Amino acid sequence: MIVELGGGLFSKRIANELEKRGINVKLTTTKLRDFRFKKKIKNFPVIHFTGSPTVTFTGLLSLIRFRKWNKKIVVSWAGADIREVKNNIFWRLCTKIFLNYIDINITDDEFAAKELKQFGITASVQPLPVYLLYPLNELPEKKRIAVYLPDKSKSDYDLYQGDLIKKLVNHFPEIEFIITRNSGKNFINNKNVKAIEWCDNMEGLYHDVIAVIRLPKHDATGATIIETLSMGRSMIASGTNFPFCKIVNKFEDAKNYLEEIIQKPILNKEASEYVHKNYNNSILADDLIKICKNLI
């Protein structure tokens, strides 16, 4: 019934959750060179894009082709897609031209939906079934802090406010920071930093910390936020208006919140209950299925 378009981790999780609900799903990428692709997806009336096709050339070609084949199109807008429309006049124009090729636009939260509305894109708030929810666990005795700070490129490091994180690390030399998706090259002289380029056991990581920091300059609600709160850990965040987060706009905010958490760590039971209730993958999968079925 549904073609899940995307080769990333989230697309795999979506396909898995839909299959659990008895939906026939074809997980694939844009097969522009496969001349049999039309035949392969003949019995799949709905295409779900995880990420907007209007902000890449390959995506646009796929969108045009699917519309020509009379497919119904559902697009899930991520923070990166919104940034492209917001900051790049070319992709903003392309989105405006091809917007009517899309049947339904959805996104993670109200904040992102309001941003899209500014550019003439009406999107419903519908989180995707991609979250790893962890049981509530008591806080560890040692006060460690996890940080999400990718540094594959300088633009990644800047987007997630690496310089601000560096100041925090220097300001709290007695606290161990575990920095994920990070090579450690900017923290060579910081003995209180453990850099991890890839973590296979996120549950174990959250279990061992009292708080998580994620400070993008712009984004929709990241999975890190939901997963952190699911275990009852404190979340210091930016680029979001998600409840239960300590929202940061400048270094002083981050410093003050972190001091507060270190002095009095709190197991956030209310936040854990909230995300377990509202971000259950089974429910989110059912919601996505309903959206797709209503198009047929």
Name some characteristics of this structure.
17% strand; 296 residues; Rossmann fold; single chain; globular; 13 helices; alpha/beta; 2 domains
**Helix amount, in percent?**
40-55%
Per CATH, which architecture of the largest domain? 3-Layer(aba) Sandwich
Counting helices, strands and paired strands, the structural category is: alpha/beta
* CATH third-tier fold name of the largest domain: Rossmann fold
The largest sheet is: 6 strands, parallel
CATH H level of the largest domain: which superfamily? Glycogen Phosphorylase B
Number of strands: 12
Uncertain segments are: none
Measured by DSSP, the beta-strand proportion falls in 15-25%
- Average of per-residue pLDDT values: 95
Instruction: Note the run of SSEs as H and E.
Output: EHEHEHEHHEHEEHHEEHEHEEHHH
What is the first-to-last residue Cα distance?
A: 10 Å
In spatial order, strands of the major sheet run 2-1-3-4-5-6
Q: What is the radius of gyration computed over CA atoms, rounded to a whole number of angstroms? A: 20 Å
Spatial shape: globular
The top level CATH class name of the largest domain: Alpha Beta
Tally of helical segments: 13
Total individual domains: 2
